[in-house]
TrEMBL record:
Natural source organism: Oceanisphaera profunda
A Pfam family that the UniProt record links to this protein: DUF2496
Protein name: DUF2496 domain-containing protein
Length: 54
């Protein structure tokens, strides 16, 4: 399976890895930043109104 056929999350992950590597971001710094990003998006999901009204 090529990247064109990969799920959207795989394509995005590859793009993010490439962005970090091209900009020579240290792995330790990247992981710290990704933890912040993860926490932010988890917070957004937790506060997102439920859809469907069930």
């Amino acid at each position: 399976m090529g990247l064109n056929e990969a799920p959207a999350e795989i394509t995005l992950a590859v793009d993010l890895i490439e962005l970090l590597e091209v900009n020579q971001v240290a792995p330790e710094l990247a992981l710290k930043a990704l933890r912040i990003v993860t926490a932010d998006f988890e917070r957004k999901l937790a506060t997102k109104p439920s859809e469907g009204g069930s």
